[in-house]
Structure formats: C-alpha cells, structure tokens
C-alpha cells in the first residue's frame, strides 16, 4: 500500500511523449560527461547488480535481492537515453564498457584544460532520461548544450574512483567541481578493461537474454546473443520524458552533479526524474 502510494505520487502522471529514434553512434567519439549520486546498493535501469551493501534488503522482492551483489563497487555510468536505446528499463547500451578521457571543461569561465590525461573505463548500468534541454537531451538531430549527442553520467563519488579523479585548479577557479566535462570515448571490451572484470557478480546479472525486467550482460559485443534488446521497443512503449521531476535522492548531494540536477540548477525547476525510482517502486508494488 505504501509502495503503491509512492508510485502514484511520484511516477504515474509524469510522462509525455517525445519523438525521435535511437542514436547509432560510432565506436569512438566525443561526448559530455556529468556525474550523479546513487544510493549504495541501488539497482539502476539495466538491473545490474547493486553494491554488496543494500540499505533495506527486506524491502526488495527476492528476485531483486538475488541480483544485489556488486556493480557499484566499480566505475559505472548512466548513458543518455537516445544513445542508450530504450526509454525504460534495459537497452542495448546496458553492460557496455567505454574508456572515457577528460578533455576540457567549458561551462567554467575560462574553459579548463587539465595538464594531466585522466581516463576511466566505465560500465553502463543506467539510463539518463531524455530531457528537453539538459545534458541527456541529445537526439539523432539535436545536440545537448555541450554540442554533443551523447552524455555519460558517471556515478561519483564512488568507492571505485579516487575523490581527486577530476583535475581542478581551486586557487584560480575557487571551486574544484566543474560538473560537466567534454570527453572522448572509446568502446572497449569489458573483459579485461573494466575494473570489475574479475568479479563475476559485478559483471552481469543475467546469463540468458529474454523477456525479463533486467538485462546486464558481462561483455556485450553488439551481437544479439550477448547484447540487450530495447525494452521500450519490445514492449511498444513510447519515447517518454519524465516531467516534474525531482528525484528522491538528496538534492544537496546531487545538486548540479547530474543531468537532472544540472538542469534544475540552471533553471530553478526540477524537470526530470530518474526512471529507476519508478521502476524500483513499481517492483515493490508487484
Ligand atoms: C583509455 O584512453 C587513454 C587515453 O587515450 C589511454 O591511455 C588508455 O590506454 C585507454 N585505456 C583503455 C583500457 O583502452
Ligand atoms: C591555475 O590557473 C592559473 C591561471 O591560469 C595558473 O597560473 C596556475 O598555474 C594554475 N594552477 C594549477 C595548479 O594548475
Ligand atoms: C570537445 O573536444 C573536442 C575534441 O577536442 C572539440 O572539438 C570540441 O570543440 C570540444 N567541445 C567543447 C564544448 O569544448
Ligand atoms: C554469439 O554468436 C556468435 C556468432 O554468431 C558466437 O561466436 C558466440 O560464441 C555467441 N556467444 C554466445 C554467448 O553465445
Ligand atoms: C514481455 O512480457 C510481457 C508481459 O508478459 C508481454 O506483454 C510482452 O509482449 C513481452 N514482450 C516480448 C518482446 O516478448
């Protein structure tokens, strides 16, 4: 009942349709990178395993607790929806690994060009919902505010990533967190490049790809036998944009770190919401 109330409060009335089609992006290119916080043990859109510490495991139905094991102990990211390939749940990007290299910032004045090369291999475990003007607003025909079609929203801070991962110049800028970076990305095999490659539980949550609510292959290659289909295409769901959004995560923590809060920060509105919250609440209602 409680969960149902939550669902009705936060999820039910918020979707509108958008138009577009998935982005067929090259294996290597440039993108924007933001970062966001997710609670320990959270199972995001792909359904990849969570961290080993689940805050309230008794709330999760058994099929979920089964999958809770370890992805968040390693670098993960959400990918912007139209590149991710689904508007809900899993999509073809789930489980894919990308080597992201920081190039420069540009929302700062002046732009910042680090004098060190910083790279990180992330695994995609989450969907960054399409928004009208935020960092995840890129479509086949429209770039995001950083002039890119793709955004990676990395889970950070994370015990898997050093706190000083992002270069900065505090004495000049007066702050250390630039929020948004211009990055280059390379598609890389998760094995052996991803830090979690040796942890079987972290690598993936499903061995067979079927009509389940989760799909997180260990090492997707693009072949249909090891790569997730689009959940929304398979279930004839529209490209949805969550409106009115405010996530349940702490605003102070997420403020301007992620797609949703970056946008909220810019516009003083709260126009986006993480789909996974709805999915999670939905899973509690079944
Ligand atoms: C990631 O990119 C950096 C910078 O180009 C490179 O030095 C590094 O070897 C790459 N890592 C992988 C696993 O490809
Ligand atoms: C910070 O930026 C200023 C101005 O560009 C520069 O003179 C200084 O060397 C930089 N410091 C570091 C640590 O990068
Ligand atoms: C991002 O980096 C690419 C490659 O260096 C560059 O062409 C592009 O102008 C940069 N974009 C921004 C917004 O700085
Ligand atoms: C997927 O198919 C390819 C070729 O069709 C095959 O080489 C590969 O072993 C298959 N992978 C799995 C996990 O079945
Ligand atoms: C997946 O399962 C749902 C519910 O059983 C069904 O409505 C849907 O058509 C199925 N989709 C596919 C692609 O089989």
Automatic annotation (TrEMBL):
The keyword Signal applies. The keyword Signal applies. This is RlpA-like double-psi beta-barrel-protein domain-containing protein-containing protein. Pfam families: EXPB1_D1 (PF22514). CDD domains: DPBB_GH45_endoglucanase. It comes from Mycena metata. Residues 1-18 form the signal peptide. InterPro entries: RlpA-like_sf (IPR036908). Keywords: Signal.
């Amino acid at each position: 009942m409680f969960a149902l109330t939550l669902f009705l409060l936060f999820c039910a009335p918020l979707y509108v349709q958008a138009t577009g089609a998935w982005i067929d992006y090259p294996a290597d290119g440039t993108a924007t990178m933001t970062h966001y916080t997710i609670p320990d043990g959270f199972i995001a859109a792909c359904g990849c395993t969570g961290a080993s510490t689940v805050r309230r495991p008794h709330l999760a139905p058994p099929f979920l607790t089964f999958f809770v094991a370890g992805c968040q102990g390693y670098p993960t990211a959400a990918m912007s929806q139209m590149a991710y390939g689904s508007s809900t749940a899993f999509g073809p990007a789930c489980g894919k690994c990308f080597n992201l290299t920081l190039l420069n910032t540009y929302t700062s004045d002046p732009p910042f060009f680090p004098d060190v090369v910083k790279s990180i291999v992330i695994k995609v475990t989450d969907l960054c919902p399409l928004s009208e003007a935020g960092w995840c607003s890129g479509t086949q025909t429209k770039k995001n505010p950083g002039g890119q079609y793709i955004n990676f929203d990395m889970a950070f801070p994370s015990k898997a990533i050093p706190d000083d991962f992002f270069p900065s110049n505090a004495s000049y800028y007066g702050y250390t967190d630039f929020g948004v970076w211009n990055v280059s990305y390379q598609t890389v095999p998760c094995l052996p490049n991803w830090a979690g490659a040796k942890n079987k539980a972290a690598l993936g949550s499903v061995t067979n790809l079927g009509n389940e609510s989760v799909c997180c292959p260990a090492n997707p290659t693009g072949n249909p036998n090891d790569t997730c289909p689009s959940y929304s295409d398979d279930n004839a769901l529209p490209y949805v944009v969550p409106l009115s959004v405010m996530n349940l995560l702490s605003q102070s923590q997420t403020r301007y770190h992620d797609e949703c809060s970056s946008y909220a920060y810019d516009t003083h509105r709260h126009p986006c919401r993480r789909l996974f919250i709805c999915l999670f609440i939905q899973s509690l209602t079944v």
